[in-house]
Amino acid sequence: MARHIQCALDPGCTSWPLKEGKQVPGKFVDNRDAPGLHRITENVPSYPDGVTYYSRNSYQKDQACQRGFPYYELGLPADKYNPPDQQCDEFPFASTREGAGVGDWNFSVLGVTAKVNGCAGRELQRYYKNDRILVWQTGIPTDAEDEFFVHITDAPDTSGPETCEEDPNENPVTDQPPTVDAGQDVTGDEGSVITLSGSASDAESTPDTGWTYAPGPDTDPGASCSFTAAGSTTTGITCTDDGTYRVTLSAYDGVNGAVSDSATVTVNNVAPGVAERPSRATVTVTATTPGIATPTPWQVFRVEEPVKLTANFTDPGLNDTHVCSANWDDGASQTFTSRGRQCVREHTYTQPGMYTISTGVTDDDDGVADAASVMVIVYDPQGGFATQGGFLNSPAGALIDDPAATGKLTVELNPKYLPGETGPVPGGGKVAASLQGAALDLDSTALEWLVVTVDQKVAVKGTGTVNGVPGYGFVAYGTDTPDAVRLVVWPLSAGQYPQETLLYDNRGKAGYDLDVSDPQPLDGGSLQVHQ
């Protein structure tokens, strides 16, 4: 034991765990400003996470002797530690504030026999008692701390091998160490609380307990965990990444050395989530809404104007990294690294149309988020115009308030951008529609935008009156070949674009993107796209 301490305090002697420039505190150099040692017990004080100094010292010491986390190849070689014939000895002592639990690797471990270990432990306890070394506590003045040092002398060893005996004048130690059980191995999700059900008991007293953890070799660097109550036998652990973690419950009765037991926590990956933007009919959408923040639904852009995609996502795996994807609906798609918990990209459309942008996220453990999407409008004031006059047979269900109503729907439209206009509002034309035999007579009062595509499709949006009453929005879709029209009308009180609450839609099962709008063929008249 003395040789171990002497080597630990000698920078020129190899001690484990290996560390360049190791400086183990406690060496007597006849200088009270040198770093000394301070006595502690298991119950006072504790680290901020609730684990006591004694428990942290014992845990780190055991990890170094067993080449566990984080010591691995730098821990004690197998030929220096041979359990159960040997115990793991440490310096500075486990009963000091400067022990292995500090976490700076400035300590030493070595395998020694149980008899030698017990003998030295009794000598240390006698020293604490005889010299009245007070227990270090938080809050006491610095000049009132009982600091002590250790001096190893090179006197000849005349005691013989392992002849240390207990002092017959001292009461023998009959207190038995506590028993501890870390509970069963458990499984849960990253970012969620996983319950640990351990137990500890002692015949003579209630032992102090504390949990520690160590990430396994399959866990990504940077992963960490926290306990809801590290000093309680039943607690919860929350980890920032998937993988396996070794959790250890230690118990200390104030007399015997700390006793520990371990269990394995398997943490599953949770895929990131990109939420769809909530409906404007039920919530006010702002830039902080989870999901796609920009562009907003039905936002209008001119051709060659950059469109910025900003999508927020969540992931309980705080240690995960992410790759975003964007499909721009014009044949272009991209993958790129996220910025924190956000996907950000810009894209420029060169042709007018209605485009449904979709985005998704994949984490570094192959967890994939459901895609979120948003539709934008891209217009070109030089793209052409449309004229239409004719009728179609309105199907049952098209008039929402009177699903049985059918009849001839007459539609006329002739929207156009006038020379020199930059849009998005077209300065020429209007839209009108009337359903024969039913209370639906639409007249436009304002147009908002006009889209004419290169494949001779057209869409126009605006506001108007129904049966002379203002406060309605409409979108009219059409194709030149075949001649076909779709009309969607809704109350503006339900939103600035069509959603759940409608007044009329003759293609109610189709989407609102022009490419999937599915206009109904005319039964008379025609629609012409002029480019």
From TrEMBL:
Occurrences of domain PKD (ranges): 307-378
Record field: compositional bias (Polar residues): 194-209
Pfam families attached to this UniProt entry: DNase_NucA_NucB, PKD_4
Region span, Disordered: 154-211
Domain of life: Bacteria
InterPro entries associated with the record: DNase_NucA_NucB, Ig-like_fold, PKD_dom, PKD_dom_sf
Protein name per its UniProtKB record: PKD domain-containing protein
